User: Fold this.
Amino acid sequence: MRRAVFVTATDTDIGKTMIASALVVGMRERGIRCGVMKPVQCAGNDALFLKRVSGAGDPLGIINPFSFRRPLSPHLAARLESRHISLKKILRCYEMLRERHDFLVVEGAGGLLVPLSGRMLVADMIKALDLDIVIVARAGLGTINHTLLTIEAAARRNIRIVGIVYNQSTRGPLTVCEEDNPVIIRKLSAIRTLGLVPFRKIQRGRVSVELLRDIAGRIDIDAIVGDSPAQRERARDVAGRNVQPIAPHRAMAAARRNAGAREE
Ligand SMILES: Nc1ncnc2c1ncn2[C@@H]1O[C@H](COP(=O)(O)OP(=O)(O)OP(=O)(O)O)[C@@H](O)[C@H]1O
Ligand SMILES: [Mg+2]
Assistant:
């Protein structure tokens, strides 16, 4: 069983907070005491929202050790406040939270290759935390390229991908492209689809628990919690053997094999 997962996305504003919150609700419904973390936040109130949804009593400063005022890339938001993001501090907060909960949902900032400083990317933070990732991707046009790029970036760093949640960003029935995107991405990468979440009307910006429960019901949360240690070890071995030469075309093949190994 996993103890934590990192929710990343193919871009900013794709639905990480929405999906992370739904995961928390889904975990709680399974009797899993779930905590949250948003290590780095640039404007907005993701950390507070996640804390409220989880009902966790953890101090906001532990859930969100780095908060910046401006809606910018973290490296720039931090620089403009003459601060720097310390991985050590993030790791300390993470360990504290992990001790207090059965499971931890960690939300990233932007996507995998967003810089936290001139030397550190979100992907480096994920490696330091040793977390598997759930990728939130836009359901519609443009997502194939963004999602495959994200998969490649993860694979060449040996970051394990649990699967992809597709989030619809416009209202209405699924288009032909929204229906086909998970199929073609799965074919090309072998990364499993964890869910396809429809666009939901949100009244006056209020996201209700009922809405999150509905979204949670559309995501394969058992797969996120459940891979056995043996499957994980095999996935780690396969990824380790195949991805190290860092050739992008091989990285995709490695991601494919990695996913295959996990799903056996
Ligand atoms: N399925 C959905 N139906 C309707 N609205 C949605 C859905 N998913 C997300 N949204 C809305 O889209 C916006 C962006 O979603 P969200 O804040 O979850 O993205 P994010 O990836 O966490 O963004 P950031 O990079 O700023 O953290 C929010 O206003 C959210 O309420
Ligand atoms: Mg967010």
User: Anything to note?
Assistant: Residues 9, 12-18, 44, 46, 110, 167-168, 197, 199-200, 202 surround adenosine-5'-triphosphate (ligand 1) (CB under 6 Å).
